[in-house]
Structures are given as structure tokens and as C-alpha cells.
Amino acid sequence: MSLVAGLLFGFGLTLAQMVNPQKVLNFLDFAGTWDPSLAFVLGGATITAAIGFRLAGRRAAPLFADRFQLPTAKDIDTPLVGGAVLFGIGWGLVGLCPGPAIASLAIAPGSVAVFVLALIAGMLLHRLLATRGVGSAGAKATSR
């Protein structure tokens, strides 16, 4: 099931041109070559997620698990803001975020490989710092 979901996600990213860094950079460039077409992707994803969360909220448990595992953290703290800032800087500089970068490896592995390696290095660095008690180890999950 995970493979099907991943393939569908990658297909959607490719179809929406989210794997094209120039398309994303143009979407983010309000003062220059702004391309608003990705706003439809954002709108479609938001509507789909809203419907999905509404339907999931009516269930006692997910289809393929015993219980829901939802984050309990509700605070806006330094690690959350720092992570969001780093994500935004990376997205704005390169035009890729993790999902499209992984999908892009199938299309243009050479030009995206450096980004993916930096992404993996950042994840490993976070894990190392989190195990040493530096920053946040991530949101803790709870059962519903």
C-alpha cells in the first residue's frame, strides 16, 4: 500500500510540475516572473486534506492500524520556527522540497542529488543533536 501511495504522490508532483525547480521559483517570485498556477495545486491539496481529515475524524481507527497516532505538541517553539525557516530558505533558494526532490531523482538525478544528499545530512544531524538532547527530538505522538 505504501508503494502505491508513494507512486501516486510522485505522479501528482510530476503532473503538477512541482519537480520543476524553475516552476516553483517562479511561483515564489511575486515581484518578477510570478506564475500563479501552483496556487491551484496548493488549493487542491488543501481541499483534499480537509476532506480526508474530516472523514478520518469520523473513524475510530485508521484502516491499516489499531489506532490513530496524532502529535500532541501544540506550542510554536524555537525548533518549529527554525525548521520552518530552514525549509522556506531551502525551498526559495533551490525550488525543491523533500517530496519533489525525491521524485526528481527519477527524472534528473545529477542535478538533484546534491540537494538530496544535503537533505539526508540535515536529517542525520538533527537525529544526532536530538539524541544528545539539543533542540527538539520531534513531536510526541498520542493515541486517539
The averaged pLDDT comes out at 86
First-residue to last-residue Cα separation: 23 Å
Order of helices and strands: HHHEHHHE
Low-confidence stretches: none
Alpha plus pi helix count? 6
Note the overall shape.
Answer: globular
Estimate the helix proportion, in percent.
Answer: 55-70%
Total individual domains: 1
Kindly provide the radius of gyration, computed on alpha-carbon positions and rounded to a whole number of angstroms: 17 Å
Number of strands: 2
Query: Main beta sheet: strand number and arrangement?
Result: 2 strands, antiparallel
Strands in their spatial order, largest beta sheet: 1-2
Strand residue percentage: under 5%
Structural class call reads: mainly alpha
Protein name: YeeE/YedE family protein
InterPro entries: DUF6691 (IPR046513)
Pfam families: DUF6691
Transmembrane segments: 37-57, 78-96, 102-125
Detailed description of the structure:
- This is YeeE/YedE family protein.
- Keywords: Membrane, Transmembrane, Transmembrane helix.
- The chain crosses the membrane at residues 37-57, 78-96, 102-125.
- With 144 residues, the chain is mostly helical.
- 62% of the residues lie in helices and 4% in strands.
- The protein has six helices and two strands; from the N terminus they run H-H-H-E-H-H-H-E.
- Strands 1-2 form a two-stranded antiparallel ribbon.
- Helix 2 crosses helix 4.
- It is globular and about 45 Å long.
- The two termini are 23 Å apart.
